[in-house]
Each structure stands twice: as structure tokens, then as C-alpha cells.
Amino acid sequence: MSNLKIGTIQNLMVKKKKTEGFIVTDGSQEVMLPNDQASEDIELDKEAQVFLYHDKKGNLLATMTMPEVDTETYGWVEVVEVVKNLGVFVDIGIEKEMLVSIDDLPLLESVWPKVGDWLFVSLEVDKKGRLLAKPITEGEVQGDLEPAPASLLKKDITGRIYRSTKAGSFLLTEEGYRGFIHPTERKEEPRVGETVTGRVIDVKEDGSINVSLRPLKQEGMKEDADLILEYLIERGGSIPFHDKSDADDIRKTFRISKSAFKRAIGKLMKEGKVIQQNGKTILTDTMNQ
Questions:
Q1: Which of the residues 88, 116, 205, 251 has an alpha carbon 20 to 30 A from that of 125?
Q2: Residues in domain S1 motif (predicted)?
Q3: What number does CATH give the domain 9-63?
Q4: Same fold, 9-63 and 217-288
């Protein structure tokens, strides 16, 4: 019985040479190794290490180019194409690009990976016999977690988003740390596969970290104040928001927390740029016209 399964690395005997390539075998099944997929040191009647995959026509092929990942390992691979209603294709280091199915991507296309983003995947054969790239699961991350040291608190850290949920975004760092970004700690939801840099705001007992993509309060206050000013100007100098407004309404409109909104409004009022009146925030320039 043959053990030639797609997505695996095998040591096969080089049986014979043909015009289009070499025939390699495990003794019971033969596979074509195309000329452009064979290395220069290949020899007849010697073993060759190959990776097995299907070409676009569904034919089983071998390549001596080793992929970044296989069915037994995980690795970071680059997104090279995004196809609506299908998924994204990633470069695993061989001639054929692998599909990450729409079923393994977020429901919101706005947080799908873009070309140039990186996904942490393994390979998997689906029920139709197709070799697909499969993003890492939460259970697999937990099983291989590198605990972050307490000294990381308040330090900047860079990682890639590997999962996006309503609860927040999850990231992995080069060091192997697992991080979580709560929706209140970001202005925009990062894409799966996006590389982000944030500040560690908590190191948990299990070694995972909480990360904020928001600037420090003083820096953030200026950014938020500028955002509110721009919003005021676009709407004629008056908006139906004040320090007693609903927190959800504030977040939906400005993508900041109510406390951040109040700090920014306080800054603008202190600078004499706005006043609050009758449940509205109003530009002082507008009042003087």
C-alpha cells in the first residue's frame, strides 16, 4: 500500500529519467518529478527528498523544493492574492500557491488579509482531497505558548494578528508570545495577517499579554481632540455629543472610549476652542459669527 500523501515530505527512489522529468517511487506508486522541480545533484537509483502536491489539473507531482510548511508543521507565509467569495492564496515556497479558504477567514471582509500580509498556517487535505493552507487554531497556540516575562510590561512589542473575533484581536510575536487587543485599545480593527506594534499593558499569569494600539494618554488626547475638531468642522461647527453622551454612540462615531472623548473635549474647552450647550458641543468660532 502506498504512503504517498499530498502535503507530506517523502524520501523516494529515483527510478528513471523521462523527457519531461524523473519518475520517483516508494516501491508501489510512481510520481512525476518535473525537470524544473529537480535539483542538479539528483541521481538515478538514489533516494531524493521530495514534497508531494497536486498541480492545477489535479495530477500528483513531486518537487525537490521544500515548502515553508507541510501537514506536520506550521509557519508564516505571505499572502499573494485575495479572491472575493473564495479566500486568499499564500506562497508556501513552491511553484503552486495554496488557498486559505473563506471558511477559515473572518466573516467581515474588512479584516481579511491583504496582499503582503502574513498568515501562520499548516497544510491540510480537505474532504474533497484538496491541499489547503489552514490558519493555526487557538488550541494549537495555547499548546505552544512562550510565556512573556513580567519585565515586558509598558514596553513596545510587534506581532502579527492571527485571529479576529468580536471580543478582540489576537496576535503572535516573533518571540512566541500570545497577545490580545481589546476593542477599546484600538482605533481601527487590524486585519488578520497584519503586522502591528503596540504597548504591553498587562502580563497575565499564564504568560500571555494584553496589548494596546492606542497612544499614551497625553499623545492620544491630542489625536482625539484633532479628530473631534475635524468632525465639528465637517458638520458646520455643532455636533450632538457632550460629556454625558452614550458611550456606545461615542465609540461608533469616533472609535474612542467615552473617557478618551471626555479628556479630548476637556482639552478643547480648556483651549477655548469649544463649548457645550443644550446637549451639543459647539465650536467657539461658530458662536462668535
A1: 116
A2: 154-214
A3: 2.40.50.140
A4: no
